[in-house]
Every structure is written in C-alpha cells, then in structure tokens.
Design brief:
Blueprint (H helix, E strand, L loop, with lengths): L6 H28 L8 H23 L4 H9 L1 H5 L1 H68 L13 H12 L3 E5 L2 E2 L26 E5 L2 E3 L2 E9 L3 H13 L10 E5 L5 E8 L7 H7 E2 L2 E2 L11 H11 E4 L2 E5 L5 H15 L3 E5 L6 E5 L4 H8 L13
Antiparallel strand pairs: 1-5, 2-3, 3-4, 5-7, 6-7, 8-9, 10-11, 11-13, 12-13
Helix pairs in contact: 2-5, 6-9
C-alpha cells in the first residue's frame, strides 16, 4: 500500500469493487428467486448458478486469508488465544490448507447434487400432475366437440327449429340488430307457384308474442311443403376479432350456428381501401320470423315499437360493442341507418329503462342521425354495461 505510488488507491478500489461485486451477485440471485428461475425447466441452470455462487464466496474468503500482512503476523504472535493453541491451530490450518481444494470441491458437489435431485423430483411430480390435468381437459374438450358435431350433423328442417329462446340470446340478437347485424328471410315462395294452392297453414305464435308464419308462404323440400324461416347475419371488421368470435362461440355453444370458426374475408371500403371483415350467420329458424316482422317493413330496417321490452343491459352492451364510441366527454351511439323518429324512440327508451340522458343529433349527412349520451350519464352507463363488456372492448367506455 505504501511501497508503490498510489498504492492506497489501488487497495481501496480493489476492496470496494469486491464488495459491490457481491452486492450485484445477491441482487441477481434475488431477481432469480422473484421470477421463479429455480422452477422447471430451469433446474439445471439454477443448480449451476448455486455452484458458481459458492465458488465466488470461497474465492472471496481466500482473498482475505491468503495475504500475509501485518494484521495476520502480529495477531498470530501477540494474541493469547493463538499462543495457547499455537500447535493445535497451526496443525489444523496446515491440514485444511493442504486439503482445501478437495474439501471445497466435495462440498460443492454434494450440495449441487442434493439441489438437483430435489428440484428434479419436485418438478417431475408437478409435471406429472399437470400432464394428467391437461389430458383430462383435452378429453373433455374432444368429447364436447364430438357431442356438438353429432347434434348438429343431422340436417334439421327450419320448421323443426323452434323456440322459446333464452333471454340472453334475444338480448344479443336485438343488441346486434341495433348495430350492424341484419335479419334475413329464406325459403319463402308464393303458394300459387305450387300445385296445391288450397294448402292451409296453421297460425303459429313465436317467442315474444310475434307472428311466426305468413299463411301465404311455404317451401317445397324433397316433395313436401316446408315453411320458410329467418336467420340473423353478424358482421364485424377484423379489428374487433375478439368480439365477433365471442358472439359466434356464444351462439354455437347453444346450437344456434355452425361451430366452425368464421374466416376473415375482404371488402372494398370508402376510397377503394381494402378492409378485412368476419361474418357468420345463425341457422334458419321459423321462430325467428317474428323478429324479422317487427324489425323490417318493405325490407327496410326500423326500430320495433316494443324495443323497450328487449333493450336489456346485455343488449345495450352488445349495441355499444357493435357500433358506438366515445365523443368528447359523452358517448355516441351510431344510428345512421334509422330515421329521426326511430332515434327519438331509442333515446326515450334509454331514459325510461336506464335513466340515461341523451339527445338525437345530426351525423352531418342528410337524414342521418346519432344518439349522444350526455357526460353526466356516463358514470351510470359504465356501471350498467361494464359487467358485459369484453376486456378487448373496454376502451369504448373508459
């Protein structure tokens, strides 16, 4: 320290850097424990790290005892303890120093083997339990799919697909029809086109009290007459992929549509821009005819007069996820395809059903309007629809 120029600087730099080195080593170990680096499949890597840590500690210890400095010299000659046990301590030190490498290597080997064996046994048990659980889950999933395919594999005539329909299903249909979905009638032909014009068709009432069958509409299927039905067509752009797949899965699990996941297609948007979209349709149901009857007049979609009976919190959430967005400090429900009177009706229903204050405003184009929910009603709106909004669509209300 005093024999060379700036020896004090070299010594203190060495001592402090060694201390900081171990501080960083302990921080590294703490990070590994926090993130679970000792778990499978990193058991071997963790065991090697433990060996390296022990070697570092051994090196640090030897760094203190190897130099024969003044502290070691005078402590040895003047300490009563050292004089009393001079022979014994000297002999023990000689034995340890002569075999220090063997002792360290054996200790490290035993410790690393114990750690590796223990971690391997634990990870194998966990892996075995996880494997069994995954196999059971896969078997259940395959069983459910087989049951679904079996149930849907047989072609069921639309006359045999009847209600009543679950309230949640009706809420999803009505909420979607307020957005971008549409109802489509299929298989309707005039009776006069068939050889039996005198065929009589009984009147049928569907779920919700709407009329299901038109008495002048039948269809010939394999030599027999069958009633036409209605299907609901859903449509979303690919940026709302999670939402459209959730809708399809919800309806498919209840037997309302094909279990096959809808594929992305393209269409030309404004200015010739290519847009990716996803579509799917329900099966055709005669018990959906009443929905078409109250929503459409001369193939033009109108707001039903009894919409208040079907605009539930779930239906409102579906409407928001379909076609709505934040506007300034309030909220905008896009109703461009509805008339001013229809928009006023919906605004009144929002007030009556949910106590939401809103107003009808022009969308900037002739005969196009939207419903603006006032900012003082936003906390109430969020409270009503939050339980039904998908996580990927939360941005619309937050």
């Amino acid at each position: 320290m005093r024999s060379v120029n700036n020896g004090w600087l070299v010594r203190y730099t060495h001592a402090n850097v060694a201390s900081f080195f171990f501080i960083f080593v302990y921080l590294h170990v703490a990070r590994g424990i926090y993130y679970g680096s000792f778990k499978s499949p990193r058991v071997l890597v963790w065991s090697i790290g433990c060996i390296i840590l022990i070697l570092l500690m051994a090196i640090g210890f030897l760094g203190y005892v190897l130099p024969y400095g003044q502290m070691s010299l005078w402590g040895y000659f003047t300490s009563p303890t050292c004089k009393l046990y001079k022979f014994t301590v000297t002999k023990m030190c000689n034995i340890i120093s002569n075999n220090i490498q063997i002792i360290i290597i054996n200790s490290i080997s035993i410790l690393s083997i114990a750690i590796y064996v223990g971690e391997t046994a634990l990870s194998n048990k966990i892996r075995g339990v996880t494997s069994i659980t995954n196999k059971i889950t896969r078997v259940n999933s395959i069983t459910n799919k087989i049951n679904s395919v079996t149930a849907l594999s047989k072609k069921v005539k639309d006359i045999d697909r009847i209600g009543p329909h679950n309230d949640d299903v009706l809420s999803i249909i009505f909420g979607s029809l307020l957005g971008g979905a549409h109802a489509e009638k299929r298989g309707f032909f005039p009776v006069s086109s068939f050889p039996s014009p005198s065929l009589s068709i009984p009147a049928v009432t569907g779920a919700g009290g709407g009329r299901v069958i038109k008495s002048n509409c039948v269809r010939r299927v394999r030599g027999s007459y069958s009633l036409g039905g209605t299907r609901i067509c859903f449509y979303q752009e690919s940026k709302h992929l999670t939402f459209i797949l959730w809708l399809q899965n919800f309806l498919a699990n209840r037997g309302y549509c094909n279990i096959r996941v809808p594929e992305s297609t393209t269409r030309l948007g404004e200015g010739g821009k290519v847009r990716k979209v996803l579509r799917f349709k329900t099966w055709t149901y005669t018990s959906f005819n009443w929905i078409h009857d109250i929503w459409y007049s001369n193939d033009i979609k109108l707001v039903p007069k009894n919409i208040a009976n079907y605009l539930t919190p779930l239906a409102l959430a579906i409407w928001i996820m379909n076609d709505a967005s934040k506007s300034s400090k309030g909220f905008k429900l896009c109703t461009n395809s509805f008339t001013f009177q229809d928009c006023q009706c919906l605004s009144q229903v929002l007030q009556d059903n949910f106590n939401l204050k809103s107003s009808v405003k022009s969308a900037g184009a002739p005969n196009q309007y939207f419903i603006y929910i006032h900012k003082e009603s936003m906390p109430l709106l969020i409270t009503i629809v939050s339980p039904y909004i998908l996580p990927s669509m939360k941005y619309k209300i937050i």
